[in-house]
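Supplementary material to the annual report.
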Amino acid sequence: TQLLEQSPQFLSIQEGENLTVYCNSSSVFSSLQWYRQEPGEGPVLLVTVVTGGEVKKLKRLTFQFGDARKDSSLHITAAQPGDTGLYLCAGVGGYQKVTFGTGTKLQVIP
Amino acid sequence: DAGVIQSPRHEVTEMGQEVTLRCKPISGHDYLFWYRQTMMRGLELLIYFNNNVPIDDSGMPEDRFSAKMPNASFSTLKIQPSEPRDSAVYFCASSPTGGGNTIYFGEGSWLTVV
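Predicted assembly:
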């Protein structure tokens, strides 16, 4: 079983603060995705990173894929209440098997 | 374009009853995934199909769970008999070429077994 551990599990911060979420595994993935899930809905894709060391930016969100393609990070600059949600990383392995991480629940307080 | 459609949206059933969850993937998508989400275990992959063929069912908890995909536009996940520990949100998702591209999730089927 390919396990993806995310840290922290929970995060409650004030609006305007910065934060980083980590996704770690002992397995190598062909690509890694980040999703955000809001209550009562399914996860929605934010980004896919493919190349080791790759960095992608989506407005205030910065995603990085580790050089060895085993880990990833998500950095949010100047968090807004609209960023509140459950953030999930997902590793794509053999035969397109997609395994999700343990999740990070983020609350941004106005 | 319609997204992934799941039914029922909510179900409450008694222990021992059969539960059938249904999914219609996005037209043209050739991968279909069934996930289960709980507070304790997060989002777990149960089984996934490629072109209607099961590729990996190693996440199916036990023999009480079964999944079928009789055609490209329909899949079912069945639990028989159901138990309280099966209470969870069950998500169906589809993808055009598998994990490399976006996986589109349905809104989930919220199952409570009492």
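Chain B touches chain A at residues 4, 31, 33, 35, 42-45, 48, 50, 55-56, 58, 91, 93, 95, 97-103, 105-108 (CB under 8 Å).
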